[in-house]
Amino acid sequence: MALSRDWMYENNGGTCVAIAGADYCVVAADTRLSIGYSIYTRDYSKICNLAEKCVLASSGFQGDIKALQKNLAARHLIYQHQHNKQMSCPAMAQLLSNTLYFKRFFPYYAFNVLGGLDNEGKGCVFTYDAVGSYERVGYSAQGSGSTLVMPILDNQLKTPSPLLLPARDAVTPLSEADAVDMVKDVFASATERDIYTGDKLEIVILNASGVRREFIDLRKD
Amino acid sequence: MESAAVSSHDSTIQEIGFERTLYPYVMGTSVLGMKYKDGVLLAADLGGSYGSTLRYKSVERIKPIGKHSLLGASGEISDFQEILRYLDELILYDNMWDDGNSLGPKEVHNYLNRLMYNRRNKFNPLWNSLVLGGVKNGQKYLGMVGMIGTHFEDNHVATGFGNHLARPILRDEWNEDMSFEEAVKLLEKCLRVLLYRDRSSINKFQIAKITEEGVTIFPPYSLKTFWGFSAFKNPTKGAEGSW
């Protein structure tokens, strides 16, 4: 039984979204923890506040996610002791990529979106695959509902096309309130069609005045 | 990592000086847990199945841990005993500090979480699903850890079949201020459903209670069952000639 190797991973589901704006960043994830066709709990947070201006949302295998988030939080603490300052979001982005690639041959089954404010106070979002390849983008979705969410964000966020030359910043011109509303809308839609997404939505909003958290109810079926 | 001595018929793998089994053998079935007004209740049956044989009928699958916690386990019984040895050592070292501090349920849950995940990473899992309940400083705590390190905390938890059969009942009927009697009644309702529908459960249960005052593990007892349904009385009524 243990030889077959398919007991080592499981997908606990969930969707994570992050949207970067001119001076804010919104990171959101649902709070459902699933296993197969069952629900373990409706109230499990997938979001981790890694640094003052840096928030990680991960979906996938919860054991790996918890280990990864703990790992990064510990590394951040060491960084603070050594440098007497918080890690910037781009620095944390590189650390996350390296941490994931470190386990390239026994991966963390975690699909991550890192959101925060860069050194100039502009919103930044980094999106990852399970083995650490990453890219700075204006918005992203990962997890079981990502295929349902991403097309809506592409259509509605009015960001400059990534194909333009010279390359333009992909942050959305929407206001913070509009971006938060957009997040609520996309999750409501994803909940309708993705069985692993639902119960509650946790939204974390970072801007110059600090970090704010909101909880919205989603469909429980 | 795996040497040339692997045989797919064998249930053991030989690496230099290191052997491990790959299949669970004697297994316990569901464990239920729920918070109630004064603390936390855990319930489990006393069965240890060896495949489809009910080999052992007095296996205590709920044990107290330290002063503040109760641990219930389903899955491989020998791995549960191994976990109890790990926890024994943990609690011993905690007591040896003799500093008036003691490990609470949150800490034990975290330790078990790390333990299970670590064993999974070494490809040598402890084949158990654990329920950890406890009370410390008036705070009630109830959590679950799965075989590969999946874990969560909730007002009611269950392992194995309990997830499918008992959790829906608990979601419907649990509330914040249940008295001990109400909570036991609700647990018995879930246990009865499991008895009827889980092939590996037996009619001999133990309920364990933990409150601020301490742990009480009640003596084993049985539930009344009813089999006198008319459909059972003449099972071939609708299909004469079958059996």
Q: Per DSSP, what share of the residues of chain A sits in E-state strands of 2 or more residues?
A: 25-35%
What separation lies between the terminal Cα atoms of chain A?
Answer: 33 Å
| Number of DSSP helical runs of chain A | 4
Secondary-structure content class of chain A: alpha+beta
Largest sheet report of chain B: 8 strands, antiparallel
- The tally of beta strands of chain A, per DSSP, is 12
Taking all residues together, what is the mean pLDDT of chain A? 95
Shape of chain A: globular
GO cellular component, one term (chain B): proteasome core complex, beta-subunit complex
Function (chain B): Non-catalytic component of the proteasome.
Protein name (chain B): Proteasome subunit beta
Family (chain B): Belongs to the peptidase T1B family.
Please characterize this protein's 3D structure:
The complex is a heterodimer of chains A (221) and B (243). Chain A has helices spanning 62-83, 89-102, 146-156, 176-193, and strands at residues 15-20, 24-30, 33-35, 38-41, 47-51, 54-60, 110-117, 123-128, 134-137, 139-143, 200-207, 210-217. Chain A is α+β, with helices and mostly antiparallel strands. In chain A, strands 10-1-2-11-12 form a 5-stranded antiparallel sheet, with helices on one face. Chain A has a 5-stranded antiparallel sheet with strand order 5-6-7-8-9, covered by helices on one side. Chain A starts with 14 loop residues before the first strand and ends with a strand. The relative contact order of chain A is 0.22. Chain B is an alpha+beta fold and 243 residues long. Chain B has helices at residues 77-97, 105-121, 161-173, 180-197, 230-233, and strands at residues 12-15, 18-21, 26-28, 31-35, 39-45, 48-50, 53-56, 62-65, 69-76, 128-136, 139-145, 151-153, 156-158, 205-211, 215-217. In chain B, strands 3, 6, 7, 8, 9, 10, 11 and 12 form an 8-stranded antiparallel sheet that branches. The N and C termini of chain B lie far apart (52 Å). Classes of the chains: A alpha+beta (221), B alpha+beta (243). At the A-B interface, strand 4 and helix 1 of A face helix 2, strand 12 and helix 3 of B.
